[in-house]
């Protein structure tokens, strides 16, 4: 299931992020056979990475679900942070702040190339903070010793959440 969700997020990665769209929107993702493969609820931002030099990077925050659920796969939606210059596959532990307040202790997110991912159902406190906060930031130091920080505006997060829930048959 995670491979399918990762594919959904990756397919959509560059288009929305490079436009630096800061509005939350639901996007339908079609598969190779032109059927609906899933949905992405997303917003974009510009992040900062500090390593041997300081650079800006395209980032996005996404809720992702697959419409192709089978008995062998879980239908759990994922929350993902996309970072266009990130590589690797090691677990990461981002510090997450909503309105400059820590959301619990850093917990493990799985990295798959340009994505950090975690099950939405393992992230209930974070989902609640998305619904009530004004801004959310993610900061972590990757295995490449690069410090990454990005912030997303939550002002209209709730505007299309019902559409995402309806499309994904979930209740976040």
Give an account of the 3D structure.
The chain has a single domain (2-168), classed as Immunoglobulin-like (Sandwich), CATH 2.60.40. Strands 1, 2, 3, 4, 5, 6, 7, 8, 9 and 10 form a ten-stranded antiparallel sheet that branches. The chain is of the alpha+beta class and 172 residues long. It is built from three helices and ten strands; from the N terminus they run H-E-E-E-E-E-E-E-E-H-E-E-H. A hairpin with a 5-residue loop joins strand 9 (135-141) and strand 10. The model is unreliable at 11-19 (pLDDT under 50).
Let me know the number of strands: 10
- Whole-number average pLDDT? 86
Our estimate of the beta-strand percent is 35-45%
User: Any idea what the CATH architecture is?
Assistant: Sandwich
Computed Rg: 15 Å
What are the secondary-structure elements, in order, as H or E? HEEEEEEEEHEEH
Let me know the largest β-sheet: 10 strands, antiparallel
Which consecutive residue ranges, at least 5 long each, have pLDDT under 50? 11-19
Q: What CATH first level would be assigned?
A: Mainly Beta
Q: What structural class do you assign from the helix and strand content?
A: alpha+beta
Number of helices: 3
Tally of domains: 1
Question: Helix amount, in percent?
Answer: 10-25%
User: What distance lies between the first and last C-alpha atoms, to the nearest angstrom?
Assistant: 19 Å
Would you tell me which CATH topology applies? Immunoglobulin-like
Assign an overall shape.
Answer: globular
List the helices and strands and how they pair.
Layout: H1 2-18, E1 25-30, E2 36-50, E3 54-66, E4 78-83, E5 95-98, E6 101-102, E7 110-112, E8 115-119, H2 124-132, E9 135-141, E10 147-153, H3 161-168
Antiparallel strand pairs: 1-2, 2-3, 2-10, 3-4, 4-8, 5-6, 5-9, 7-8, 9-10
